Every structure is written in structure tokens, then in C-alpha cells.
Amino acid sequence: MEEVQYLDWNNSIQTLNKAYDAGLFVLIIGPKGTGKTSLVRDFAKSKGINLESINFSLRTRESHLVGTKTLTDGTVSFDEGLLVKSMREGSLLYLDEINSAEADVLLRLDEALDDRRQIALKESNGEVIKAKENWFVIATINPLTHSGTKELPPQLLSRFPVRIRLEYPPEEIELEIVKKHVSGEHDSEITHAIKLANTLRQAAAVEELFYSPSLRETIAFAKLLDGGMSPKEAANFVFGNVYTQWGDIEYQKVSDIITSMFGN
What we know:
alpha/beta, 9 strands
């Protein structure tokens, strides 16, 4: 399937270009499913630079960043982690959901991100790795309302002086994004689905609901329509049924909204 180009509706690529030229690392802040990863991929492609990605979680360890010693046929060697690899090569390092990482991992990362742009490898006899001059880092964080996230330490925040806020796009832009993935024959129904998604997002923002649907869901809805499913069925499968995990009352709230928009 042909790769879909990111629709840069708020000039984020321009901001990334200016930050790159100035040698300033970037933090992208926004909820899941707003296109943060697509934005970074398209930026790397536009600059013609290699992209190294780390998706952080509670399971991410220092060794994922810096590397680890290995023993093969009696010979000890050092396998570099993605942080060290990107520093050596001067590639773009993408730190996805950085505020899901543990404190010891963030501390090690902070060492590499300060103004010296270097890291001492205790795992490799104290070797000091200094980043190439064009090394560039983009990190993303999800709002603290997302499970598993935590506040970033102030010193680490300061390593990313350029901050892009990436929210859900206006309805007409979201329609344009969705249409890049499907046939384009269901504009009216997709518009209704986007209105539904925004209703649910707004309810989640004020904690009336537990879940906020992303752009992925509106795209999935449109793909089901392309496959011949009715709008009401697609809305139930994509937007409604997920709320059953929070109980019948939560599910019924959303089910009533879907019925009001798409009929019985």
C-alpha cells in the first residue's frame, strides 16, 4: 500500500526545519493518534536523514539506549544501543512517549542531551561517544491523563527548548486526512463520525468518559464503510464497543450518542 504523506495542517514541518537549522531539540506534546509519529517520519524523509526510533515504556532499560556487552565464541563485544548509534551516525533520534520511561533511563538520556552532546559508556570501558554535529533529537510526550505517563524532570524538559503542541485537527482537516486513506465516496458519513469522535474527545477531556478516540479510529471507520459496512455498524465497532470495558453505564452513554447521530 502506498505510504500516505503527513498533512501538515499547523505548519509543524516548518517549525521542525527551523529548530533543526538552529540545532535545537524538539518536544511534541499531544494525545495519542494525532499524527506525531507520521510528522516525524515525514520530516526525516524531507531532510534525507536516517531515523532511529525508541518507543518508551516501563520496560525500556538503559541497555536499549546505550547498548550491552555480549559474549560470542569466547569473545566479549559491545552491541550499541540506538542512542549511541544515532549519535555516531548523526541520524535523527525519535524518542516516542518519553514520559513513560523510568527515572534511571531518563537520567542516562539526560547525559547525552546536554550541551556537550556526549555520553560516557561505563558498559564499554568508559569510552566517550560524542555526537556528530548535525545530530538531532525529537521527543514526544502524552498528556499526564494517559496511563503510565509522568512529569518529565525540569532539567530534561530544558533539553527540548522548542515545543510543538499537536492537538486533534479541525473537522474539515480531519476529513481531508481520512480521505487520504479511503475511496472518498462517504464524505457525509465520515463527517458524522468525526463529529462523534470530537463529542467523545470533549467528554473525555472533562472526565465524563474514560477514552478519547484518535485519528486512527476515524480512518478505521471510513475503511469499514469502503468495505461495505453500514455507518451505524461501523460506529459501534470502532467507537462504541471499546467503552464496554468500563461497564454498561459507560457503554450505554456512548451507544445513545451513536444512535442519535446514525439512527437505529
